[in-house]
Amino acid sequence: MKTLILVHPGSLCGSARAMLGKYDADAAREEILYQVSHHHGPLVVIDGSFSDELSRAENELIETSLARNEALGYLALRIWGCDAGDAPYIGWKPTGLMGKHAVFDGQEEAACSIADLIDTPIIEITGAWATEDRSSGCVCSVHDALVSVHGPARDIRVSDMALMEPGNYPEDSFTAD
């Protein structure tokens, strides 16, 4: 059993298209949302300033996944943790136990605030953005925040599907002769 955490799903839209191109960004977003929709277990979504870029269908997929997992008795949270300091957009609604206390100053604070609610041995973090060396990116900062709380007690990992910042895919380091 593992907990899946989706970080800044809105960054999988416009900013991903700007960084990766339309085809690659859309394919990555579809893959990550497929992962979310097929996850049966604790599920946490940490929204940020671009979450309003998700389509109605994408938001419904996330909400349906949260509702299904909650109905199965799993932790299911949608919280706000914007590293830019932006307030939630009009119409944003939290999901789960946090209620009106679901808005945090950055994804790290959000991750630390829910760390004690996570009781699975494995925590997998996906979304946008990450780097191979874990030196930057919101996915990596959530990883680091959870490691600071849990230490080696949990297997906390960055998903293979997490969006890597350009220049951070293994194939980017190869050069043609």
Short précis:
This protein is an alpha/beta fold and 177 residues long.
What is the helix tally?
5
User: How many angstroms does the end-to-end distance come to?
Assistant: 45 Å
Spell the H/E element sequence: EHHEHEEHEHEE
CA-atom Rg in angstroms: 15 Å
Structural class of the helices, strands and pairings? alpha/beta
Indicate the mean pLDDT: 92
Please indicate the percent range of residues in DSSP E strands (runs of 2 or more).
15-25%
Low-pLDDT parts are: 172-177
Name the shape in a single word: globular
Largest sheet: number of strands, sense, barrel closure: 7 strands, parallel
**Total beta-strand segments:** 7
Summarize the amount of helix as a percent range: 25-40%
Verbal overview:
The chain is of the alpha/beta class and 177 residues long. It is 34% helix and 19% strand. The chain contains five helices and seven strands, in the order E-H-H-E-H-E-E-H-E-H-E-E. Strands 1, 2, 3, 4, 5, 6 and 7 form a seven-stranded parallel beta sheet that branches. Helix 3 links the parallel strand 2 and strand 3. The chain is globular. The C terminus is likely disordered.
